[in-house]
Amino acid sequence: MRYAIIENGIVVNIAEAEAPLGADWIADDGNARIGGSWDGSAFHPPPPPAVVVPASVTMRQARLALLGAGKLAEVDAAIDMLPSPQKDAARIEWEYAAVVERTSPLIATLGPALGLSEAALDALFVQAATL
Q1: Coil, strand, or helix at residue 37?
Q2: pLDDT tens digit string along 48-79?
Q3: Given CB 3.0 to 4.6 Å as the disulfide criterion, which of 4, 28, 57, 111 pairs with 128?
Q4: pTM above 0.85?
């Protein structure tokens, strides 16, 4: 039989034994997972891991993510719509930067111009980091 040890309502260990190994060990109904919770009558799965938005991605990764989102072709037009000298700075960043910082002025400017919310930009950075 499987047993789970609970500390402060959280499953911290699971073991197989013929009998409970101590007072804190609860018989597992097959649903106990380390990091999950115990409410006194049932086990619940652990929360999904937090999504970490990368601080930067390579320009290659950024362009591939934009391509996948159907936004790559819109970037040049969005840059061209900016007033100088902002347009010139954005063009230099777009054409010559090796990495793209999530908090960069380029992203702050291009995101809304491409119709991307903060959440959509975060999702693009997460996706880009996998490419």
Answers
A1: strand
A2: 988 899 999 999 999 999 999 999 999 999 99
A3: 57
A4: no
One DSSP character per residue, 58-101 reads EHHHHHHHHHHTT-HHHHHHHHHTSPTTHHHHHHHHHHH-SEEE
Q: Which two tokens stand for residue 27?
A: 């018989």
DSSP state of 122: H
Residues belonging to the chain:
131
Percent of the chain with pLDDT over 70: 100
According to DSSP, the residues that pair with 101 across neighbouring strands are 56
**Averaged over 88-105, what is the pLDDT?**
96
How far apart, in Å, are the Cα atoms of 87 and each of 2, 71, 81? Answer: 63, 18, 7
Report CA 51 to chain centroid distance, whole Å.
3
Cis peptide before 85 (omega within 30 of 0): yes
Domains in the chain: boundaries: 2-44, 56-129
